[in-house]
Design brief:
By secondary structure, the protein is α+β, with helices and mostly antiparallel strands. The chain has seven helices and eleven strands. The strands form two sheets. Strands 1, 2, 3, 4, 7, 8, 9, 10 and 11 form a nine-stranded mixed sheet that branches.
């Protein structure tokens, strides 16, 4: 059958365009009081699903339900990785209403960064401000006529779990209301609680720049087998162990009386080659003959005659059956 010749196409194939660059999304939400910073609901508290109808977004950072204010939402995992690092010196502006009236010495201790257990906070900026114009909270703070309250503006350069609350509580002025107002150039100016907006082009460029500084994820490294390394250093081989829970099956023995014969030792070219190699390698240095093993080898003709005699051997008289 003759080979078919290729036929030219009547229509040209469409040109394949270059893949479009992935456009990442960056949003900011004024998280209301009592809302969890996640898309799930726990203990009857609402999540972000009610305020963020866009799929594929996740919050940047952690914020407890009692804290209000700015919460970034994006589909760029590098931004979350970078802002969660201790070396990410992105300023965060907090408005905190504290219990009592802190004196100048207390504010100086707060600016230096007090020690919180095994961790010491970084230096920060703190000052007393008049009461800001914020929307009323659904659950009002506790009111005590004899104990005044004060508003503080804190600009910190790190963020971890209940950071501001632990700072003010360590100095004897617990936080009553806490609002995160700004993160870098992004703030809540002109927004209301529960509002979601997309970052402006300038704010988006800042977010992309911060995300580009995130370190690359290292590939998963298998755990080290220190026992194998120690044995290899000692020049010993590693014994193969059976996997846990799997017992090695015992060899099956043939039952008695079944008439099974033991398999004879195979003889073939491999065996002959092995004997020849032994004979060649076993020559002595003096005569060049085969190496003496202490037991003389039987001649081939004698060995053959003994095998034929064993075949012609008649059974003994005691083994014959009676009556025949």
């Amino acid at each position: 059958m003759p080979a078919s010749s290729p036929r030219p196409r009547s229509q040209s194939l469409p040109a394949v365009g270059l893949p479009r660059p992935v456009r990442l999304r960056y949003y900011v939400l004024w998280k209301p009081f009592g809302v969890l910073a996640g898309f799930g609901e726990e203990e009857g508290r609402l999540g972000l699903r009610r305020y963020v109808p866009l799929p594929g977004l996740f919050p940047v950072g952690r914020m407890d339900a009692e804290t209000e204010g700015l919460l970034l939402l994006t589909d760029d995992p590098r931004l979350c990785t970078r802002l969660a690092q201790a070396g990410a010196l992105e300023p965060r502006l907090w408005l905190a209403q504290v219990d009592g009236q802190p004196d100048p010495g207390t504010l100086d201790d707060l600016r230096r960064g007090p020690a919180l257990g095994h961790r010491t906070a970084l230096p920060l900026e703190a000052r007393v401000i008049p009461e800001p114009e914020l929307p009323a909270r659904p659950v009002p703070i506790r009111h005590r006529p004899k104990t005044p309250t004060c508003w503080l503006e804190l600009r910190v350069f790190e963020g971890w779990s209940r950071h501001v609350r632990r700072l003010t509580a360590a100095l004897g002025h617990p936080t009553l209301r806490l609002v995160q107002w700004a993160l870098g150039p992004v703030d809540l100016a002109g927004m209301v609680p529960g509002q979601l907006r997309e970052l402006s082009p300038q704010e988006s460029r800042w977010a992309e720049k911060v995300a580009a500084e995130a370190p690359e994820r290292k590939p998963a490294v298998p755990p080290r087998n220190r026992r194998a390394e120690r044995l290899a250093w000692q020049g010993r081989s590693v014994r193969r162990e059976e996997p846990a829970g799997e017992a090695k099956p015992a060899p099956r023995r043939p039952e008695r009386g079944t008439g099974q014969k033991r398999a004879s030792k195979p003889t073939g070219p491999a065996t002959g080659q092995k004997q020849t190699s032994r004979g060649e390698s076993g020559r002595s240095a003096s005569g060049g003959g085969p190496r003496s093993s202490g037991r003389p080898a039987a001649p081939a003709n004698r060995r053959k005659g003994s095998q034929e005699g064993a075949r012609r051997r008649k059974p003994s008289q005691g083994s014959r059956k009676k009556g025949r």
